[in-house]
Amino acid sequence: MRPDELFADDHRRRVAAGLQRTLRTVDGPQDAHILIDGRRVLSLCSNNYLGLANHPALIEAAIAATREYGVGAGASRLISGSMRLHEALEARLAELKGTDGALLFTSGYQANLGVISSLVGTDDAVFSDELNHASLIDGCRLSRAAVCVYRHRDVAHLEEQLRTTAARRRLIVTDSIFSMDGDAAPLAAMCDLGERYGAMLMVDEAHATGILGPRRAGLVDALGLHDRVTVQMGTLGKALGAFGAYVAGSRSLIDFLVNRARTFIFTTALPPAVVAAAAAALDIVAREPERAAAVSRNARRLRSGLRRLGYRMLGNDDAHIVPILIGAAEETMALSQALFERGVFAHGIRPPSVPDGTARVRATVMATHSDDDIDTALAAFAALQPSRGPVRTAAAYLER
Ligand SMILES: Cc1ncc(COP(=O)(O)O)c(C=O)c1O
What we know:
about 400 residues, alpha/beta, 4-stranded mixed sheet, binds pyridoxal-5'-phosphate
């Protein structure tokens, strides 16, 4: 088959299965309202939870850092030198996370690939929640360790796998707040298991950094577990409004990763502008706790309204990721499109991002959504009220 035939064939299959994805063009910044495909819509799609991606303080910090340090970092930090700016942000992140050290990565995806593949290898075992983010899944695959997938948030199943797996070096990996489900990993019980069965624990705080906990450092912070988690990973491109990622842990972990994590060693460091913007975001997170509070408040308003309308959701009441379970991919995409036509942008999420039969509209709320914004969204959902319940597979999923 010629390459073009191969691509066209794959395209036909995707379209037939309702799985074709397309890009929509945005003009202007990411905010509560965005201009997309020429239309101004309310965005319920962004991970820019605190509304910082277009905040003047981040913009000014990025401009100032660009003037002082230039645009590019030049090379990997092991090659062209480690800019003081990166080191200062790492020190702040370590302080925030209650660890001895932290290390920046160029994205969350790369952090997860690099950390997992350096912590475990052939002969080792990695234990992974079945609904972990794709970057954790890919990190497990890349590591070549035996991958033991346990049922979503099921500590008994995790324990059974830890008990029956012989490998001596073991790593448990989990999202803290699950990206497509909005629910939380049972971290305290997972720490107990890690300690009992001699396994390291890695927690991906991509969706909790900046939001949860007394210091808004994440779920580990909320539960006071920073001494018991081996690796706290998180991103700078979601609630913190910038770009990139960090790993926080002991000094020896950071030294190990500097020497072993190929996605740290063999890639150009983050540009000064985004490092400075992320630092400015941390100032705001510390200074304005009301932003995180607004995220939960908006989540509760949206969720209670949707529940009244008969929609079924995953996750607890104040979870800022609001997955509205539909079931079939086509129905999900039709709802998403109909919402868009009513001025509300909420993405449909289909397999392979979520298990078959559990397609959903994933709405996310931001601190910068007003009550009126949430009510506008609810009015659009009301006009499209579900006539039928979720399909059977989705219903079974809900019961778990
Ligand atoms: C749980 C989780 N981990 C990692 C990532 C990857 O982070 P990044 O976008 O910085 O690559 C994402 C989303 O993008 C995510 O949702």
